[in-house]
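In this supplementary section we document a worked example of the pipeline. Step one takes a protein sequence of length 148 as its only input; no multiple sequence alignment statistics are reported here. Step two produces a three-dimensional model, which step three serialises into C-alpha cells for compact storage. The input and output of this example are shown verbatim.
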Amino acid sequence: MSELKKVTLYTDGACSGNPGKGGYGGILMYNGHKKEYSGYAEETTNNRMELTAVIEGLKLLKEPVNLNIYSDSAYTVNAFLEGWIDNWTANNWRTASKKPVQNVELWQELLELIKPHKVTWNKVKGHADNEYNNRCDSLATGEIAKHQ
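The serialised model returned by step three reads:
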C-alpha cells in the first residue's frame, strides 16, 4: 500500500446568539494548495457549527489520507482526545450522567467520515495568532454577516 497523502484541515464554527444564525469555515491544505469552504445555518448552535465545519471538510476528501485536524473547539477535539466519543458509543449515545448526547446525528456522521482516514486531532487556541484559525473564524463569521 502506498503511503497516505498528508493533508491538513483547519476548521471553525460561529454563532450569533446560541442558538441563532450560524456559520462555519474551513481550509483544507495539501502539498502547498489550499481550498477554503464555508456555509451557513439559520437556526443552530456554536457546537453544531464547529462539528459541521469538520464534517464539510471531510466530505471534500476524495481518498484516504493522513489527516491533521486543527480546531479551537474543545467540544469537538476533546471528544476524541479525552475518549468521550468511545464512551458515548459504548453507552448507546448517553453521557456519563446518562443523558442523551447532544448533536448525535452529527457525531455519527463525523465518525463515518473519518473511518477511511488516519486522523490526528489538534486543539488550537482560538482568537490568538494562528493565521489559519483566524481565517476560518473570518469565513464562519462572514457567512453570518452575509445573512444579517
